[in-house]
């Protein structure tokens, strides 16, 4: 008979490499796709097949990227929620569960819809989660411009 030893670990990956930045980048990408969809010129009424195909191709690509990055944001948030945050964090931030729950639900909504306001709210909520994450580590944060066409800011640890 094979004797199996039980191994115990508190996370899936080594401590110290969690970071909310990938979730922020994913949320910003979702917002950028909304901006591009909004700016995409509609084909003219008498437009030909080529014009319609260009529009359909661009719109399809923007939607696909929007959905992929909304899913990536959900995945990154899920890792932080399930692997990093602990009971003592809930004591200090009693609305943390609701913040994560609602943010992940919002990421699903931005996958399902073309809703720029929801994408902007996703960015804001992910930024709040980033602030809390760094606060739990005793690290001050600051906001820095993304320097990307989407605009906005990332929440990063202060130097």
What can you see in these coordinates?
The chain is built from 5 helices and 2 strands; from the N terminus they run αααααββ. The chain has helices at residues 21-39, 49-84, 87-92, 96-112, 116-136, and strands spanning 141-145, 153-157. The N and C termini lie far apart (56 Å). A hairpin with a 7-residue loop joins strand 1 (141-145) and strand 2 (153-157). By secondary structure, the protein is mainly alpha-helical. The chain has a single domain (21-40, 50-157), classed as Four Helix Bundle (Hemerythrin (Met), subunit A) (Up-down Bundle), CATH 1.20.120.400. 62% of the residues lie in helices and 6% in strands. It is elongated and about 70 Å long. A two-stranded antiparallel ribbon has the order 1-2.
How would you concisely characterize the structure shown here?
It is built from 5 helices and 2 strands; from the N terminus they run αααααββ. With 159 residues, it is mainly alpha-helical. Strand 1 (141-145) and strand 2 (153-157) form a beta hairpin.
Output the CATH topology.
Four Helix Bundle (Hemerythrin (Met), subunit A)
**Rg (CA only):** 20 Å
SSE order, one letter for each helix or strand: HHHHHEE
The computed structural class is mainly alpha
Number of helices: 5
Tell me the major beta sheet: 2 strands, antiparallel
CA-to-CA gap between the ends?
56 Å
Tell me the strand percentage band. 5-15%
Mean of all residue-level pLDDT scores: 92
Number of domains: 1
Helix percentage range: 55-70%
Indicate the CATH class. Answer: Mainly Alpha
| Model regions low in confidence, pLDDT < 50 over at least 5 residues | none
Identify the overall geometry.
Answer: elongated
Give the strand order of the largest sheet, numbering strands 1, 2, ... along the chain: 1-2
Supply the CATH superfamily name: Nickel-containing superoxide dismutase
CATH level-two architecture: Up-down Bundle
Question: What is the number of beta strands?
Answer: 2
């Amino acid at each position: 008979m094979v004797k199996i030893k039980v191994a115990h670990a508190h996370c899936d990956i080594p401590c110290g490499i969690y970071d909310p930045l990938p979730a922020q980048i994913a949320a910003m990408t979702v917002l950028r796709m909304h901006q591009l969809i909004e700016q995409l010129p509609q084909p003219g009424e008498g437009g030909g097949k080529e014009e319609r195909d260009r529009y359909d191709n661009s719109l399809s690509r923007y939607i696909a990227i929007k959905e992929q990055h909304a899913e990536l944001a959900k995945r990154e948030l899920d890792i932080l929620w399930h692997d990093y945050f602990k009971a003592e964090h809930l004591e200090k931030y009693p609305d943390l569960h609701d913040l994560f729950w609602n943010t992940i639900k919002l990421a699903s909504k931005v996958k399902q819809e073309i809703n720029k306001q929801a994408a902007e709210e996703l960015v804001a909520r992910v930024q709040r989660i980033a602030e809390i994450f760094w606060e739990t580590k005793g690290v001050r944060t600051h906001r820095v411009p993304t320097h990307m066409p989407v605009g906005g800011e990332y929440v990063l640890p202060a130097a």
